[in-house]
């Protein structure tokens, strides 16, 4: 596989995966950070800091959404834009 295909993918159907519906919770306030801190004591919590101006961030977000395979009740996902 060429370097460009590794970076940008190719049209091979065997390598393309469907983007799943990820249960993102928008992180919009400082108060939520305190809630996240408390929740993280008993449950896995992840915060994805996305930048709409960054191509790498968009690529990583897409890859995460394609590869994500954890039950909704096992992790809380927060999205910070």
Describe, in plain words, how this protein is organized in 3D:
The chain has 81 residues and is of the alpha/beta class. It has one domain (16-80). The chain has 3 helices and 3 strands; from the N terminus they run αβαβαβ. It has helices at residues 3-8, 30-39, 55-67, and strands at 24-26, 44-49, 75-80. Strands 1-3-2 form a 3-stranded parallel beta sheet, with no helix packed on it. Helix 3 (55-67) links the parallel strand 2 (44-49) and strand 3. The mean pLDDT is 84.
Summed up:
This protein is of the alpha/beta class. Helices cover 36% and strands 19% of the residues.
Strand order in space, largest sheet: 1-3-2
Q: List how many beta strands DSSP finds.
A: 3
Distance between the termini: 33 Å
Low-confidence stretches: none
Number of helices: 3
Q: Compute the gyration radius: what is it?
A: 15 Å
Average pLDDT score: 84
Q: What is the global morphology?
A: globular
What about the largest sheet? 3 strands, parallel
Count of domains? 1
- Approximately how much helix is present in the residues? 25-40%
Strand content: 15-25%
Counting helices, strands and paired strands, the structural category is alpha/beta
This entry's quaternary arrangement is: single chain
Order of helices and strands: HEHEHE
Characteristic key phrases:
globular, 3 strands, 3-stranded parallel sheet, about 80 residues, alpha/beta
Question: How does the SSE layout of this entry go?
Answer:
Blueprint: H1 3-8, E1 24-26, H2 30-39, E2 44-49, H3 55-67, E3 75-80
């Amino acid at each position: 596989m060429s370097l460009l295909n590794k970076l940008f993918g190719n049209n091979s159907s065997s390598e393309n995966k469907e983007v799943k519906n990820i249960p993102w919770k928008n992180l919009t306030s400082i108060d939520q950070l305190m809630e996240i801190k408390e929740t993280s004591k008993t449950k896995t919590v992840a915060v994805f800091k996305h930048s709409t101006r960054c191509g790498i961030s968009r690529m990583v977000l897409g890859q995460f959404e394609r590869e994500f395979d954890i039950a909704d009740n096992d992790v809380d996902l927060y999205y910070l834009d």
